[in-house]
Amino acid sequence: MRKPVIAALVAAVVLALQALSPAGAAGTSTYRSTSHPVLFVHGYNGSAQNWDTMVSRFKNDGWPVSHLDQWQYDSRQSNATTARQLAAEVGRLLVSTGASKVDVVTHSMGGLSSRHYAKNLGGGAEIDAWVSLGGPNHGTDTANGCLDASCYEMRIGSDFLTALNSGDETPGSPRYATWWSPCDAVINPDSSVSLAGADNRQTTCLGHNGLLTDATVYTQVRDLINS
User: Fold this and answer.
1) What is the extent of the structural domain holding 120?
2) Residue 45 resides in a domain
3) 22: number of Cβ within 10 Å
4) Tens place of pLDDT per residue across the chain (227 aa)
5) CATH number, domain at 123?
6) Which end of the chain has fewer beta carbons closer than 10 Å to its terminal beta carbon, N or C?
7) 24 domain residue, yes or no
């Protein structure tokens, strides 16, 4: 009678260990040894914690903590200043992980500094996949009501955006992708998000911050950067 009991206990322990593993109980890890570290860039008045839900999902899919960088910065300063700081953070992440490139996942205004980095500061050679979730890539009228340097740059027709969008909107070798929602009340017009030469995707009716936590958006982003 003891053997069946022992076998049942062993099976229970195995299941418990599987549940604690990064891949989860089903063993569905999608992380590969060739996967790049991911740098997450929040938006205006945001914080690194904005990414908690998405980062948790990456962890559950096998990404090690060392490869998930929830970066924090002063979102009131010029996006050009942030881009220089971003370049330093990418350099730090590459050294700490031994990777040759990073994937950059951005929300809202976070897309602007990272685009400036890619276009003007050599970032194009260090980014594999670049993702914009609800980015004001061509400006938004909601920026007309704030006065910070970065907010001025988000206004439609600003000097910063005019320069950023001049010529090729998706320069270099990165794989550019954007996600936009028809129910995003922060980015007006909706067409601001899409970039010429990018993989531009429409979501379901999500709010601006809903792009950060929606399970379908996460799966699409994960599959895109891991392809």
Assistant:
1) 36-225
2) yes
3) 15
4) 444 433 343 333 333 333 333 333 334 568 887 789 999 999 999 999 999 999 999 999 999 999 999 999 999 999 999 999 999 999 999 999 999 999 999 999 999 999 999 999 999 999 999 999 999 999 999 999 889 999 999 999 999 999 999 999 999 999 999 999 999 999 999 999 999 999 999 999 999 999 999 999 999 999 999 98
5) 3.40.50.1820
6) N
7) no
